[in-house]
Amino acid sequence: MLLNDVLRRLRFALSLDNTATINVFRLVDYSLEEDYLLNMMRREDEAGFLPCRDKILALFLDGLIIKHRGQREGAAPVPLKAGERLSNNDILRKIKIAMNYQQEDMMKILKAGGLVVGKSELTALFRKPGHRSYRECGDQLLRNFLQGMVQINRPDARSKAAPDAT
Prior knowledge:
Blueprint: H1 3-13, H2 18-26, H3 34-41, H4 54-69, H5 88-99, H6 103-112, H7 119-124, H8 139-153
């Protein structure tokens, strides 16, 4: 899944405007220009489109964690190293932490997004990659999760199409 889509859908689900989004980045001591943000919010086929890098999305998710859960004492978020990739499992885990979702919440959100998963299937997504029960989070599962967040957090948007809902 394109990281720009993840950022766009997450912003929509949480009703974050440009100023609120920039403030989330400030929580992790990252200065983001509004023009850069606007270019990341463009669609791929639009002029001025900039791809969202893994590091940018990781910083945004870390900022959300601080915004919703508070700064962890003695530990600043560790930024991604150069060349390090952010997996769908990492994205889902950071959203879960930021929003303080429990297993039942996650299952409810996925169901609202049109996907029913069992408890064991869900817990497999949060295991370490080397674990025998680890399951990779696919693009469709992440897409359904973000759509479920929109359905639950923005009931006013149910009749409207979410950005990039195609």
